[in-house]
Write a structure and sequence with these properties.
By secondary structure, the chain is an alpha+beta fold. Among the domains are: 56-114 and 159-219, Uridine Diphospho-n-acetylenolpyruvylglucosamine Reductase, domain 3, CATH 3.30.465.10; 223-323, Enolase-like, domain 1. The chain contains 13 helices and 13 strands. The strands form three sheets. A five-stranded antiparallel β-sheet has the order 4-5-8-6-7. Strands 9, 10, 11, 12 and 13 form a five-stranded antiparallel β-sheet that branches. The longest helix has 16 residues, at 308-323. The model has no long low-confidence stretch (mean pLDDT 96).
């Protein structure tokens, strides 16, 4: 690992000044950043740490019921916050399920959204894969048991690693991004970049930009939500499948649905067929299973990951049921 400058700005303005130069990277909790440096995928000249920048640390409900989250909040703080647990349950569950307590105490939600892929071909310096500027995705014909079952035909079969992104997309979150001169607000769906658009990027952040606020719209207080993930082992692990569901209910009838799959595609994946199956429908086990069937109907698994299709079907069914308080096991 080469020497680098370590900058500790006291304001967002100063942090963005530091970023406005080449080979400079942001550090939140630093979990992914240090891995990338050890794996020789990054060799920055300067690291700008914003982990303890107070301007990025807030959890507050506005008078119009909009809920604002600072990207510097740790995953533990997100998981344990009373309002998030009560009104945005899927986000609390997603944050609580990330890795181990030690990592959750350090990792920030902003950093969690901006993680790079965990594909072993991408992480290995022995492979010049398409996401690193190479000519091919080795996972398409290689070891692909944990890779994408949707949208994997655009030259890269990664799955996006952020659990909180799955929940925030179900909650229709917006992100406020700044470069120090101007701010822009984008939907979280627009934040992530598909391989068909740019195979070497996961999000739209320019090198001189940072997320300064995560916004959950006021209307999402009228939704109930739930998040589940299926892991290979009971202790902390990356998910084989994770699902977030947000439903707007009138009695036992669903007025609107947002269903997002993680570990399924190169970006968090909204299942519009499943959403359409639930809208204007009474939520029962039968309608939940119908939506789950619709969600996986167009899956295109690779040679070694077809087993993920029935797992997703089951996790989607269980998440829909538990969102509205139906016991999926009875």
């Amino acid at each position: 690992m080469k020497n680098f400058e370590y900058a500790i700005p006291e304001t967002i303005e100063k942090a963005l000044e530091y970023l406005d130069s080449s080979k400079t990277v942001l550090k939140g909790g630093g979990i992914d950043l240090l891995d990338l440096m050890k794996e020789q995928l990054l060799a920055p000249d300067r690291i700008v740490t914003v982990r303890d920048l107070e301007e990025l640390r807030f959890l507050k409900e506005e008078s119009d019921d909009t809920f604002l989250i600072g990207p510097g909040q740790t995953l533990t703080e997100i998981a344990e916050h009373d309002t998030i647990q009560k009104s945005y349950r899927a986000l609390a569950q997603a944050a609580h399920g990330v890795a181990s307590i030690q990592i959750r105490n350090s990792a920030t939600i902003g950093g969690n959204l901006c993680q790079r892929p965990r594909c072993w071909y991408f992480r290995s310096s022995d492979f010049s894969c398409s996401r690193k500027g190479g000519e091919s995705c080795f996972a398409l014909d290689g070891e692909n048991q944990y890779h994408a079952i949707f949208n994997n035909s655009d030259g890269c079969a990664i799955v996006h690693p952020s659990a909180t992104a799955v929940a925030l997309m179900a909650l229709n979150a917006m992100l406020i991004i700044s470069n120090g001169k101007e701010e822009k607000e984008v939907s979280i769906e627009s934040f992530f970049v598909k391989p068909s658009v740019n195979i070497e990027r996961e999000n739209i952040l320019a090198p001189n930009e940072m997320i300064i606020t995560i916004v959950i719209p006021a209307e999402m207080k009228d939704y109930v939500s739930y998040y589940l993930k299926q892991k290979e082992k009971l202790s902390f692990d990356w998910p084989l499948a994770d699902v977030a569901v947000a439903l707007k209910m009138e009695g036992d009838r669903c007025q609107d649905a947002r269903i997002v799959l993680g570990s399924a595609a190169p970006v968090p994946f909204r299942s519009t067929p499943a959403e359409h199956a639930l809208k204007n429908t009474i939520i029962t086990k039968e309608s939940a299973m119908q939506a789950a069937n619709e969600a996986v109907a167009n899956a295109e698994p690779l040679e070694l990951n077809a087993y993920k299709v029935p797992i997703f079907k089951t996790v989607i069914f269980r998440t829909i049921c538990q969102t509205v308080g139906i016991d999926p096991f009875s």
